[in-house]
Write a structure and sequence with these properties.
This protein is α+β, with helices and mostly antiparallel strands. The chain contains nine helices and eleven strands. α1 crosses α2, α4 runs antiparallel to α5 and α4 packs antiparallel against α7.
Amino acid sequence: MAGTKELTEHCEHKLAAFSLADHTAKTGSMALPVIKKKQLKMGTVLGVGKYGTVYRGRLTLPRGGAVPVAVKKPENDPELLAKTSEEAGVLQELEGEAAVPRLYGLTADSPPCMVMELCPGERLEDCLGRGRVRACLLALVEVCGVVQRLHGRGIAHGDIHEGNVLVDASGEGVRAFLLDFGLAARGADPGQQENDVIDIACTALQVIPDTERFSDLRQSLEDAADLNEVITLLRQVLEEDEFKEKASKPSKEEVKNESKKQKKKKNKKGPFYKH
């Protein structure tokens, strides 16, 4: 006969599955995968937002192996629980979109936590703070493409800003990831999609120098009617000598400092990284 611990875990899992099924029915999502408590190890806090806290974690996969993940834990509020389920549904619908975090599922907790891929890179605002303007511009061009694909599927993000864009410049090129779909809308109307265009344009204005040299371009960006126009303007900035590829490469000293930083991170990994 099963012990008390096993029975408790089984009941928690069934209750969570029932709760998620209820929210799935309300939001029209496909059935969402449920992550068992023993599969997930929680780590340090990655960020605190209006609707909850995001933690670093490690997820053991059903077929073996483990992956680093981001775990979004909402406040214990019925409205926020529904929002978490809706966000998970959007991520599930966007499965396969390279610049959107992969959804692994929702935990068998109360309230359920959303378990997602831990994307590489740093926030755009941090990348900009290190003077990597070209990398930020390239990331925004990629974000425009991502959002165009979202709009093609009737989805608006609803909360694009420099804190919700990750820039990964660790490889040969630059990759971008769009985070936090908590305010995303399915079946988005033209007004909601237009707000995404405005949000990206405003984010780009944070990146492009506010100087006389770029004043006309900045004005054009403020008046941009669609994402194609935003992309064209961003590429114009990228053609400027100071933002061409050779000007954006980190110095030997920057590379050396980054290498030291990565080594320190490896030495400071929490217990959930241990196998």
